[in-house]
């Protein structure tokens, strides 16, 4: 599903953020990406949804080399990848419904279908009662779920989450993780970047550890 | 690489993804944008209104000058005198030959009696001077009006040459100098108008694209999110372009309303006491084609103003 071959990435004028990263994530996998701050986790995720291009090496999603995609094809790639951003990126002046609906509007769905689908997903996330609330009025955990709902509402093939449990309490972490697991069971490939040891240890999933832009360890911890 | 053959990573297009499937959405977004940035939107509309009003006032002046020029050059006539007084039959034959020259619009025979009468009129109050003068002192003539495209320059010269070749035609008078000068002046007005119009359009395009940039800037976050969830460039741009077209159309309608108002309040009656216009039929309003062009100009400004301001923000 996801393959990286000898990927190097340096930001202009900065030192190398990723060097010689090769890895393979199969369809239906659930993988944690971990490592200290500045190791290059967010950078690696951005490569996957074509927000960045590797300086060298290749990124393949579903057999498609992203370097071969034209600019006008990138939107279609992104429609098959749901992303939960480290800073959520929710629109403060739009309701929860409108925030989640964006993913479907882009696909050209009709208003009524969007309403139904969004409501379903919000229910799955346990925040159906917040459908008309504005994000700044929500708790951190609730905002996180809205971001997740937006990423999952079109049933993406791949779910990418960057530090999704950042400042949540244990109960919330558990719930968010169970949503990931549920999506994974439905067939979505899940990649989660986190440096939360407890989350990783409790889940018994494959872990890829980055340090200073290198893959230093891959742990296959089967349940 | 063929788009359709792209592998599984690319989600196929769906049925409702055409422009019309989304038009309702774009339209709603455009209206929301307009309302949420009401002040900036109104500034844009006002800019377009002002620019179009200036342009249309200029056009109004131009159209009227043109109308006057038309009226005057209608009177440009060639007067052709005969070698010797023709008999009515000979005059008729001559007329046919003159009418055969390309460019002839109208030929009018002025008899000796008529010539004397005209002369009398001109000397009103001093009729005593005319005592003893009989009709045969003044020659009869043809007064010839030309087709529009033969009225000046080389065409006129060519026509006169042809006329002089007609046997029986003697002296030919034509081409009042000031008419030529007026035509030169009109050409000048046309050029100045085109240059000023171009500069005005560029300045307005610049202002409009910058004011629209403000509304785009206010939606930077939204555009970023749209890009990340897979919106195409067109999808992101369309609402702004529709908004631009709306603003342009609104500006055009306002400027035309103002123009009409100005016209009926002041200009319509001005002709009567300014008496620049010999016919004293007042000042003309712009013909429909010009009004349509002004409307089109507004839409153009709005559309390209938005397009220019979007280029920097939408990089997907
Ligand atoms: N836009 C950028 N321009 C220049 N350098 C950048 C940019 N983004 C990240 N970097 C650099 O690249 C390196 C990797 O950053 P990255 O954000 O991928 O780390 P991370 O593992 O996600 O860290 P954290 O756990 O703190 O989120 C860092 O040294 C960072 O300074
Ligand atoms: Mg990060």
UniProtKB/TrEMBL annotation, chain A:
GO terms for biological process: cell division. SUPFAM superfamilies: P-loop containing nucleoside triphosphate hydrolases. Residues 2-223 form the ABC transporter domain. It is found in: Cell membrane. Pfam families: ABC_tran. It comes from the Bacteria. It is a peripheral membrane protein. This is Cell division ATP-binding protein FtsE. Belongs to the ABC transporter superfamily. One of its GO terms (cellular component) is plasma membrane. NCBIfam families: FtsE (TIGR02673). Part of the ABC transporter FtsEX involved in cellular division. Important for assembly or stability of the septal ring. The gene is ftsE. PANTHER family: CELL DIVISION ATP-BINDING PROTEIN FTSE, IMPORT ATP-BINDING PROTEIN.
UniProtKB/TrEMBL annotation, chain B:
Residues 76-172 form the FtsX extracellular domain. This is Cell division protein FtsX. NCBIfam families: FtsX_Gneg. It comes from Geomesophilobacter sediminis. The keyword Electron transport does not apply. Belongs to the ABC-4 integral membrane protein family. FtsX subfamily. Residues 195-315 form the ABC3 transporter permease C-terminal domain. GO terms for cellular component: cell division site; plasma membrane. Forms a membrane-associated complex with FtsE. It is a multi-pass membrane protein. It is found in: Cell inner membrane. Keywords: Cell cycle, Cell division, Cell inner membrane, Cell membrane, Membrane, Transmembrane, Transmembrane helix. The chain crosses the membrane at residues 38-63, 188-209, 240-267, 279-304. It comes from the Bacteria. Pfam families: FtsX, FtsX_ECD. InterPro entries: ABC3_permease_C (IPR003838), FtsX (IPR004513), FtsX_ECD (IPR040690), FtsX_proteobact-type (IPR047590).
């Amino acid at each position: 599903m996801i393959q990286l071959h000898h990927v190097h990435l340096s930001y202009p004028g900065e030192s190398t953020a990723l060097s010689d990263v090769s890895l393979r994530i199969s369809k239906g996998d659930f993988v944690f990406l971990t490592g200290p701050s500045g190791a290059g986790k967010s950078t690696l995720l951005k490569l996957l949804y074509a927000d960045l291009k590797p300086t060298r090496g290749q990124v393949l999603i579903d057999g498609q080399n992203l370097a071969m995609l034209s600019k006008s094809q990138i939107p279609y790639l992104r429609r098959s990848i749901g992303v939960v951003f480290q800073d959520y990126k929710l629109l403060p002046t739009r309701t929860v419904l409108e925030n989640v609906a964006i993913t479907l509007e882009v696909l050209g769905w009709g208003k009524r279908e969007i309403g139904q689908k969004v409501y379903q997903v919000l229910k799955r996330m346990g925040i159906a009662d917040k459908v008309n609330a504005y994000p700044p009025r929500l708790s951190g955990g609730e905002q996180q779920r809205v971001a997740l709902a937006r990423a999952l509402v079109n049933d993406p093939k791949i779910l990418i989450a960057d530090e999704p449990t950042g400042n949540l309490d244990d109960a919330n972490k558990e719930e968010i993780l169970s949503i990931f697991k549920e999506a994974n069971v439905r067939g979505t490939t899940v990649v989660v970047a986190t440096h939360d040891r407890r989350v990783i240890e409790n889940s018994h999933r494959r872990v890829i550890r980055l340090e200073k832009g290198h893959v230093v360890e891959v742990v296959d911890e089967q349940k | 690489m063929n788009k359709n053959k792209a592998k599984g990573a690319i989600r196929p297009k769906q049925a409702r993804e055409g422009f019309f499937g989304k038009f309702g959405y774009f339209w709603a977004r455009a209206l929301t944008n307009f309302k949420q940035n009401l002040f900036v939107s109104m500034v844009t509309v006002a800019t377009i209104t002002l620019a179009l009003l200036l342009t249309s006032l200029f056009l109004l002046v131009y159209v009227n000058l043109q109308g006057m020029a038309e009226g005057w050059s209608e009177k440009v006539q060639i007067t052709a005198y005969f070698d010797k007084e023709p008999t009515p039959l000979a005059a008729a034959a001559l007329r046919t030959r003159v009418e055969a020259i390309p460019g002839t619009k109208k030929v009018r025979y002025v008899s000796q009696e008529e010539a004397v009468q005209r002369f009398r009129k001109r000397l009103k109050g001093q009729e005593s001077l005319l005592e003893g003068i009989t009709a045969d002192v003044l020659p009869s003539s043809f007064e010839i009006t030309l087709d529009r495209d033969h009225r000046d320059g080389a065409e006129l010269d060519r026509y006169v040459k042809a006329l002089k070749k007609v046997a029986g035609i003697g002296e030919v008078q034509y081409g009042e100098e000031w008419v030529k000068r007026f035509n030169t002046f009109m050409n000048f007005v046309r050029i100045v108008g085109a240059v000023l119009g171009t500069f005005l359009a560029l300045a307005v395009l610049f202002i409009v694209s910058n004011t629209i940039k403000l509304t785009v800037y206010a939606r930077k976050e939204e555009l970023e999110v749209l890009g990340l969830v897979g919106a195409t460039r067109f999808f992101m741009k369309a609402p702004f372009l529709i908004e631009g077209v709306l603003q342009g159309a609104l500006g055009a309608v306002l400027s035309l309303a103002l123009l009409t108002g100005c016209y009926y309040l002041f200009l319509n009656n001005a002709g009567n006491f300014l008496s620049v216009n010999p016919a004293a039929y007042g000042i003309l309003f712009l013909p429909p084609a010009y009004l349509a062009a002004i409307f089109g100009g507004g839409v153009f400004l709005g559309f390209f103003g938005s397009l220019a301001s979007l280029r920097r923000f939408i990089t997907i």
